[in-house]
Amino acid sequence: MQISEYPEHEKKSPRRPLDILRHPTVRSALALAWVESKPGLTGGHEEGGFIVVDGEDKLSVQRWQAGEGNQIRVPEHLGCEADGLPVVATFHTHPNTGPDYLQEPGETDKRGVRDDAELKGSQYVGEFVVAHETVYLITPSGTVRELDGRSELLG
Q: Can you state the percent helix, strand and coil of the chain, rounding each to 5?
């Protein structure tokens, strides 16, 4: 697998998570993923995807196959790339709002990001978790930050 060369300016200053979330293409895609995950007390399923950057420095979203309940399978992403494009972030939803489900990222979520050797690219900022009230960021080291309200960030 060939790994793309990153533009020199991106090696020095990776994107900031909030700037990625505020990008119109990303914002629309995550808002759609939230709706398609059917949030509520029952019947929801996780949706997710890769946020990638192309050779012209444009962000786009590659959606994953829909999950089941509170699980989702992450497709192959060798060298922190998806379809040959650098992954700058990943995301998934936490649509189940019933008492048996966590809205914030759980230990499995944190380990999944922290322990994934293929999510260590120079541009990767972490995984966004879109929940009912809040959007969280799991950093590559596995720590969690609350970024802002879902409605404020995604509309």
A: 25, 30, 45
